[in-house]
Every structure is written in C-alpha cells, then in structure tokens.
Design a protein that fits this description.
Structural class of chain B: mainly alpha
Strand content of chain A: under 5%
Distance between the termini of chain A: 38 Å
CATH superfamily of chain B: F1F0 ATP synthase subunit C
Shape of chain B: rod-shaped
Helix content of chain A: over 70%
Number of helices of chain A: 6
CATH topology of chain B: F1FO ATP Synthase
Strand content of chain B: under 5%
CATH architecture of chain B: Up-down Bundle
Largest interface: A-B, 21 and 16 residues
Number of domains of chain B: 1
Number of domains of chain A: 1
Order of helices and strands of chain B: HHH
Radius of gyration of chain B: 20 Å
Distance between the termini of chain B: 12 Å
Oligomer: heterodimer
C-alpha cells in the first residue's frame, strides 16, 4: 500500500501525469460543465439548478460579510472557487476509481499558495503599499520577522490540515476495506462525506479570516 | 541484517507511540473548547451562529496539531527518508 505517492499513468513529454492530475481535471471538467449547463438559460424566476447555484453564491457572500462587511462581492470569485473546488475534490475520493485530489500534498500546497499570494494582493489593492507594509512593523520593526514567519507557517498549516484530514480518512476506509470489504466501510464513507464538507468549510473560512485581516484598515490584524 | 530489522522495528514502534501520545493533548484541548462553547450556547442561545463559527475555526487550528503528528507518522511508515541509507 502506498499512500504518499501516486500512480503515474503516462508521461507528457517529461512531465509525469499522475492519478491526482487526472482526477483534478475530471473534477474541474465536471464543475465547468455543470456550471455552464446551470447558467445557460438564466431566468428572473430561477429554475432548480439556478436556484442551487444562487443559494451557494448567497451563502458564500453571507459568510464573507459576517467576517468583513462590504467585501462580499470583491472576495466572492476567489473564495467561492476555492470552496467549490475543495468541496467537490474531497467528495471525488468516494467515487470508485478516482482519487481525491486533495489527498495529494501537491494539490493542497498549491491551494494554500494561492491564498498566500492573494493576501498581499488584496491587502495592497485595498489599502495601498504603505498601509499594507505598515502592518509588518507594528508594534515595532523587531516584529517583522515574526509576521513573515507566521504568514509562511499558516500557509503550511492550511495545506497540511486539508491534506492530513482527507488522506487519513482515505487510509481508514482502505484499511477497513482490506479487513472486511462488504458493509463495514459504509459508515466510515458516510463520515467521509461529512469530513470532506467540513474541511472545505474550514479552508474557506480560514481564507476569509486571513483575507479580511489583510483588507481591514489598521485595527485588528489577528488571525 | 540485524541492524536493518531493528531499524524497522524502532520506526514502526515510534510511529505508533507518536500518534498515540500526540493525539491525547489536541483531544483534551478540543474537548475543553467544545464544552466551553456549549456552555456559551446554553447561556445565550441567540449567539449560536457566531459561537459555532468561532468554534469551528478554533477546532480546525487545534486539529492541525494532531494532523502534524499523523503526517509525521505516515512519513515514518510509508516514505521514510532514512531507509535508503540503511538498505544500500
């Protein structure tokens, strides 16, 4: 059993195409096709699929506005995309033959790096270079290395948390499957649905916390 | 061969003990956080939304400690970087 390495399907030039990459592209394709189909005939009185999407978008906007008011529209594209992708990627692991893309450390590290880069982007965009950089030297310039260290470590912990949770769940299911493949893994798989959704929620809400701390002016730089 | 077998035994035992000990303290912390949050909700049911949101964030931060231990023991078991020095 190999959990930390993934099967390589074929080589694209010198680039190995692993099971993770294939699963990621399948998830992406499913999401893109679903959203194109759902938004093809937008109506004023929404149909079933449009209703689901509107509920999701409004839910994300409400989540953001609870943390930082008036920034819902601005952060929606990034945060909503992260939530949708991570949620469906976590659940994709339950489909036979697919591997949850988030049980590969490369995927989660990439997602965390997106957040790492988005924090200064939105910070500078909303309060300018001067004010954004000022956060690093408060209360005194001695604290600057600690601010930088905390930004790097929180990126790693964001990536490791998602990776560890999903991989741990996958390993538990695999071991139960080896022991008795008939009915016993089913409760654990139901629990995996719960964990996947909760982890997507947690990644999203931590992203919102980090971004809203960068956007806000002066006061409250916790998180 | 003796040394290699000893190395493997020590690795497996260490991974087991690491996860066993490393899970205790995050679990205690999470229990404490949950208990306090429930107390807060029981005292003030209208604050359920903000309390449970903060609770989730706090639990996630606590849980990452246990996840670090899990990752370390998984690396010890499945991707031990020292193996290539022992088995030449």
């Amino acid at each position: 059993m190999e959990f930390l390495t993934t099967k390589i399907y074929f080589y694209l030039g010198t680039l190995p195409v692993t099971k993770t990459v294939v699963s990621t592209w399948l998830v992406m394709g499913a999401l893109i096709i679903a959203s194109i189909l759902a938004t093809r005939h937008l109506k004023f009185i929404p149909g079933r699929w449009q209703n689901i999407l509107e509920m999701f978008v409004e839910g994300i906007i409400n989540m953001i506005e609870d943390m930082s008011p008036h920034n819902g529209k601005q952060l929606l594209p990034l945060v909503g995309a992260l939530a949708l992708f991570i949620g469906s990627a976590n659940l994709a692991g339950l489909i036979p033959g697919l591997k949850a893309p988030t049980s590969d450390f490369n995927t989660t590290l990439a997602l965390a790096l997106v957040v790492f880069c988005a924090v200064p982007y939105y910070g500078v965009k909303n309060q300018g270079w001067k004010n954004y950089l000022k956060v690093y030297i408060t209360p005194s310039p001695i604290m600057a290395p600690f601010h930088i260290i905390s930004e790097v470590t929180r990126t790693f912990s964001l990536a490791l948390r998602l990776f560890g949770n999903i991989l741990g769940e996958e390993i538990v299911i695999a071991i139960l499957f080896i022991l008795s493949p008939l009915i016993v893994p089913v409760p654990m798989m139901l629990f995996a649905i719960f964990t996947g959704v909760i982890q997507a929620y947690i990644f999203t809400i931590l992203t919102i916390v980090y971004l809203s701390a960068a956007i806000e002016k002066e006061d409250s730089a916790e998180g | 061969m003796q040394g290699e077998i000893l190395f493997l035994c020590v690795t497996v035992v260490t991974a087991g003990f690491a996860i066993a000990i490393g899970v205790i303290f995050p679990a205690l912390g999470q229990g404490k956080a949950c208990a306090k949050a429930l107390e807060g909700i029981a005292r003030q049911p209208e604050a359920t939304g903000p309390i449970s949101r903060t609770l989730f964030v706090g639990l996630a931060l606590l849980e990452s400690l246990a996840i670090y231990v899990l990752v370390v023991s998984l690396i010890l078991l499945f991707a031990n970087p020292l193996l290539k020095y022992v088995f030449k």
